[in-house]
Amino acid sequence: MTPNTIVQYWNTSKLPDDISTLVDTWKVHNPSMKHKLFSYEDASAFISQHYDSEIQELFKIAALPAMQSDIFRVAYCLKMGGLYVDCGIKCKAPVAPLLSSEALFLVRKWHGGIMNGAIGCRAGHPALERIWNRIVQNLKERNSNDVWRLTGPLSFNQMVESGEFESSLNVVEQASTKPYFDIVNELEHKKKHWSKEQEKQSVFSDELDDKKASTPHQISSANSSAEVNSEAKTNLVAIKDDLEASSCEVVISGGFEKEHVSRVIINVSNIVLSSRTVNRFPIILNKRGNRTEVEFYAPKPHRHFPLRQFVTSGNNGVTDYMLLMVEQTENNAFYKLSATDQADLITILMQLHIAFSKQRFVFDNNVSESNVGDIETWCQAIEALITSLTEAKTKETSSKPVSTISKITVKKLALVASNNAVDNELALCGQAIIEGGSQPEAFNVRISADSTVSKVLSVSVDNLNLKPREAELVHAISNTLHKTNCNSITLGYALERWYYALQSFVK
User: Fold this and answer.
1) Strand residues in 185-280 grouped as ranges (E)
2) What pTM was estimated for this model as a whole?
3) CATH of the domain spanning 5-194
4) Which helix (H) or strand (E) holds 117?
5) Which of 43, 216, 273, 324 shows the greatest Cβ crowding within 10 Å of its Cβ?
6) Mean pLDDT over residues 401-408, rounded?
């Protein structure tokens, strides 16, 4: 049955004036469809009527209105069918043409991600059921303090990207929905966005009285061990969000605890870095009073080293070692590392911290906590080190002049016809000037992406001088896309989509 009910949610019974105006547009333009507006109390009653006590409790502990809305919209559409739309969306025309009896209607935003602000389907749709099961599991496990990951669009994107339900989906590009409805961004309630609220508190109401307001030792701007500037805080949170689901393997293989110094030796596998996953490697943490250090030994044959560059700090009589700390001393290797290596080191420590705080580690034979000291104390030490290194990296980066030795500037860019003429290939020609070069370098480049242009799969550059510096060239191309001469060529996907795919590829 084709959905014939428009469903919306607002956490209070009285709507703000700007929201009330937008809600009315759905009634005006869709007189043949039923319209239901649920408050928090209405939603709670609906869930109590149609779901068991466990689901009722999961809805009850959702602390933020955005999270409540996320849960309710999927719960309603799965049970009753209908079209759910956010209250911050303005209707411009009847929406019935977008809906069908079999397909799950979703919207892909201009940047390539699936939004959950518009959901249309029949009751019991299997794709929506998959999303619902994932949301319920996330809430049970409390595997994040991020609404977007717990109950929001992440589950929708994962379902779509799986390809399992492709034949029963109607994923419409945001540009194609413009004749029917528009997202309104300039609204009063958006000045206090849920993404900012979750940085200050737990998203679970039964944890709000907990002073830590999150998982013990969770790294956040609210509980950092040292004062950091706002840019460092932002970087820290961004890294953590990406690594929350890290599956690295941590084995504590040795160490000691003495009065003035403690050491823990760790073997780590499946660490995810900026451009790769690193195989097993050893890392050593030293505690000297209030200071924590990171130590690597010179890589031996067949031993993986996680960073791109080994900076020698000294020799212990057996092998060279690399000592990383926050203090700016003559031999401190941290300040000699590239910005990429600094970021990768912080990423390693973030994944170690998550593993320690969530007890995702094992002790090697004949090693126990009695050997290395309290794991909780090590967790706190790693947290303080991450915070300090993040601040140091930010200061260091911001104080360094930008090097232009290897800079590539794309001066001219135009679309050229693809031999294959497929939607997931971008064919470009252009001219690039290498810093220090006297003449522009002409090039042709073909960029292939997945079927939805969410991920770049390959890049082919024909200029031999530019080929070794492919990443720089791609970055320069992405920043120049908005000036591209299209030569009357029609693309299957907008250049904005390609821009974000290229940016992700470079990162």
Assistant:
1) 249-257, 261-269, 271-272, 277-278
2) 0.47
3) 3.90.550.20
4) strand 114-121
5) 324
6) 51
Alpha helices in 358-452 (DSSP H): 369-372, 375-399
Tokens for 66, please give them. Answer: 């955005």
Would the pLDDT of 196 be above 70? no
Instruction: Work out the percent of the chain whose per-residue pLDDT is above 90.
Output: 35
Tell me the two tokens of residue 118: 């518009």
Which residue's entry shows tokens 């319209």? 35
Residue 115 contacts residue 78 (beta carbons within 8 Å): no
Instruction: Give 429's contacts (C-beta < 8 A, 6+ positions apart).
Output: 413, 414, 416, 442, 443, 444, 445
- The token pair at 496 is 């904005």
Query: CA 19: distance to chain centroid?
Result: 29
282-314 per-position pLDDT tens digit: 999 999 888 899 999 888 766 778 998 888 888
Contacts of 468-473 with CB under 8 Å at 24 or more apart are 469/406, 469/408, 469/434, 471/506, 472/406, 472/407, 472/408, 473/408, 473/410, 473/432, 473/443, 473/445
Per-residue HEC secondary structure of 63-86 comes to CCHHHHHHHHHHHHHHHHCEEEEC
> Letter for the amino acid at 423?
D
Query: Could you state, in order of their start, the residue ranges of all structural domains in the chain?
Result: 5-194, 230-399, 408-506
Distance CA 304, CA 319 (A): 16
Structure tokens at 449: 């992406």
The answer to whether 119 touches 128, Cβ cutoff 8 Å, is yes
DSSP-derived letter for residue 294 is: E
Q: Does residue 231 register a pLDDT over 60?
A: no
- Ordered DSSP codes for 438-502: SSPEEEEEEEEE-TTSSSEEEEEE--TTTGGGHHHHHHHHHHHGGG-B-TTPPPSS-HHHHHHHH
Distance between CA atoms of residues 71 and 403, nearest Å? 48
